[in-house]
């Protein structure tokens, strides 16, 4: 069995080395660190002797990095950053700050506000890891019922479950501009629509709900994401109900068009933020949930 590695250098030596470089010399670094210049000289000299390489060379009153010093400086700063993050994480854990957060997000939820919330959360995250998993239809129900996620964005509130309203998502029937349905006199009837292939997103729940969503077409092709559905639509195949925020860019470039279906076919769904286990949600989760609500409300 090999002996465990024991470092020859210390973090303090690396910190002094970084300071000498950052402040442009031993005298300047000594002033900033409130140490004597001789102690800094001694620390860097000992570090170089331990490593067997020259990190700095002094010209006049200024210290310059050697090529090897440049490499070691970059790596040592990563080391210092990791130590800082480690200590911050320890302090956060002591305060009950969660090391990891998980969000189950219904696939129809607009991603822009979620990404903005993540961006706002990052500087304050204290090293918390965030996992975002897409769910479809009853997949969100499972995420709420099983309590395996800290936060859930859903378009359906199960019986007895409360949620914070985030916004409204409109779904519209969409086809390629050259699809036969788009060439027919508008509006088209439901009977005409269901003669064509419907492109749908797979329900991620353990027990898929057949009574949710518009699934009247006899022939259906199932996909895992709206991205794939859009690519198939652009090939002139089938029709699909798409969230308006996903379809809009393709309406603007005229590759896809909204079907005018007699009787109206647009559907609106409200999305909610649910906390499956409120008593277990720590300060990180509470803060992130506030950011989600804040950024989603800006789109209303």
List the keywords.
Arc Repressor Mutant, subunit A; alpha/beta; D-Maltodextrin-Binding Protein, domain 2; transcription; 7-stranded mixed β-sheet; Transcriptional regulator; WH_DNA-bd_sf; 21% strand
Uncertain ranges: none
Which overall shape is indicated by the principal axes computed on the Cα atoms? elongated
> Could you say which structural class the secondary elements and strand pairing correspond to?
alpha/beta
Number of strands: 11
Number of domains: 3
- Could you give the distance between the termini? 63 Å
What is the H/E order? HHHEEHEHEHEEHHEEHEHEEH
Do you know the CATH architecture of the largest domain? 3-Layer(aba) Sandwich
Radius of gyration, in Å, reads 29 Å
Q: Briefly note the CATH topology name of the largest domain.
A: D-Maltodextrin-Binding Protein, domain 2
CATH class call of the largest domain: Alpha Beta
Count of helical stretches: 11
Strand-residue fraction? 15-25%
Major sheet summary line: 7 strands, mixed
Q: What do the pLDDT scores average to?
A: 89
The amount of helix comes to: 40-55%
Brief account:
The protein has 300 residues and is α/β, with parallel strands linked by helices. It contains 11 helices and 11 strands.
